[in-house]
Amino acid sequence: MSEPATKSQSASGRTPALVVPGPSCHASLLPILLVLGTLALYWPALRFNFINYDDPDYVTANLQVQSGLSWESVKWAFFNPVAANWHPLTMMSHMLDCQFYGLKPWGHHLTSVLLHALNAALVFLLLRQTTGARWRSFLVALFFSVHPLRIQSVAWIAERKDILSGCFGLLALIFYARYAQRKIANRQIASPTLPAQPGWLIADYLLALGCYALGLMSKSMLVTWPFVMLLLDYWPLHRLGNSGFGIRNCKMLVVEKIPFFALATTASVATFVVQQHAGAMLTGEDIPFGARSGNALISYCRYLGKLFWPSDLAILYPHPGYWPLVNVVLAGGLVLGLSALLFMRQRWQPYLLMGWLWYCGTLVPVIGLVQVGAQAMADRYTYLPSVGVLIFVVWGANELARRRREMGITIAVAGTTAFILCLELTRRQLDYWRDSETLFRHALAVTENNYLAHNNLGITLEVKGQTGEAIRQFQEALRLRPDDDVIHNNLGAAFAKLGQTEEAIAQYQETLRLNLDNVQAHYNLGTIRFKQGQIDGAIAQFKTALRLKPDDPEFHYNLGAALALEGQMDEAIRHFQAAFRLKPDYAEAHYNLALAFASKGQTDEAIGQYQTALRLKPDYAEAHNNLGAALGRKGRLDEAINQFQAAIRLQPDYLQARNNLSQALEMKQVPASR
Q1: What residues have CB less than 8 Å from 461, skipping those under 6 apart?
Q2: How far is it, in rounded angstroms, from Cα 41 to Cα 150?
Q3: Which of the listed residues 14, 330, 564, 668 has the most CB atoms within 10 Å of its CB?
Q4: pLDDT tens-digit map of 173-183
Q5: Domains located in the chain, CATH noted
Q6: C-alpha distances out from residue 345 to 228, 354, 383, 536, 600, Å
Q7: Are 612 and 586 in contact (CB under 8 A)?
């Protein structure tokens, strides 16, 4: 949409250094419209489920997160990276969701949709504040909101980190822009809208720094944000003057941002250490640097392609290794050639260079030069970088329409068509995220050699009881990635579910050959040994699993059960207690602890644990029966009879409960001997 030049807009497209938008009814309504429109578009996501990729790490299998927000959980978030990432604020947001919504997915989706709607408004407010251009700012925010590439960040609960870091990152830029504009006003003329007293300057600076720190604690991708602030200094704030990116002009502005660079450096080091320690960072032996560099150049172009033609979107695009050399050369030529052209045009069209550098620079942490994970690229990585491309397009289109008025109608029609297409594509693509099976079947349909989609589809099918089909998916995943220990473990679990014990053991052993620290394989192998009666072997595997993952209640519970069979009751008791400390509603742990107490003759302690198990699980027939037996030993026959009757009501063919009830009734009829 074209806007006529005004006193606040020069013929070159530059805006003055200080832009203080006046009050406007339209300007105040536009962010509200953005929020409402975004909510309406993404509202169907509230009907979607969790998916089985990363969501378990962040929510559905994370007991610490499920316990809600507390001082203990906050400390845990700061000192325990999740999924090879240190992002305590993101984890606290998931804890808060669990506190309010439990494991009801609609509540978690609602938080994500609300945050994305807020971010759309913040994009508008940032551009409106810094440029004074109302409708161009609105169009950038509108396309940012509705573009299909946003779906992965919004509809994937585990990607809360994208939109949360985006929220704090945009707030940091807004406060930084206010700070910069106050400094400009201080040198020019005081503004009643932006008073330039030192107190206000310090407040805005500290708010920008604080929001930036919160953004980094949500996702470390914001490490390039100090450079984005320098880009805002270049355009639209024009704090570099008319000579562009001169070293002399930049020096003062770089010094001004030293605290921001310090935070970025700290976050970068922390992320590197965490990801390297977690084994998420691939080495040169996995993907050589030459392959990573080529993929980075290709990805810059592929992301642009997805932004302008968002088709065949998938949750993961497998890394191809080496791209054909001609593709890499062409991609490099496009990136370097466009960069050179825009540098030559910077004096006349600074917004083009600013938008392009925003896009290229903010993608650097995730472009794959340091490879984390097996993806070649990911839609979610465009969440903030896309803003730069949208600035490039919208401001460029406006300039073209202003200079060649006959193009105005064509540009307006093209923009309207693009908006309608985005709406329709987003609506369709969003539906693929309704559950794991739909999501991964779609990924297999639009990508090639996608081992992860085969693996996760197999997990979904196994949960649904389609174990044979799940095995076929795991085997196809292994054909594509034969040395993946996780897939071998999943295949072993599927074989075990079908009772094919030897095949399962072979897969678990292969898993451990590939990765001796695969905790789930140790646990699964221990479970098989336990069922085979090889208790010593089971104990050894459970202890190894606990050494690798000491806070898993299932591991403690099963080790306790194995130790109890070996007669090591004191140690078994310690592990049952650890199990329900980690999982307070673990009725089975309380029940088995009661059995251990009963075997030691500690009847009162056993009664207490049986009662706790029944409070947590009232339909626990075995607990009713054994509580009755314990009460009978204490001479509390009426209470014992009630428990036996409850067990029989729940399980009419429960022979032991019926025998116990008969004995209790006989004992009650026999008068006590004098």
Answers
A1: 437, 467, 469, 470, 473
A2: 12
A3: 564
A4: 999 999 999 98
A5: 25-402 (no CATH), 585-674 (1.25.40.10)
A6: 19, 11, 27, 74, 85
A7: no
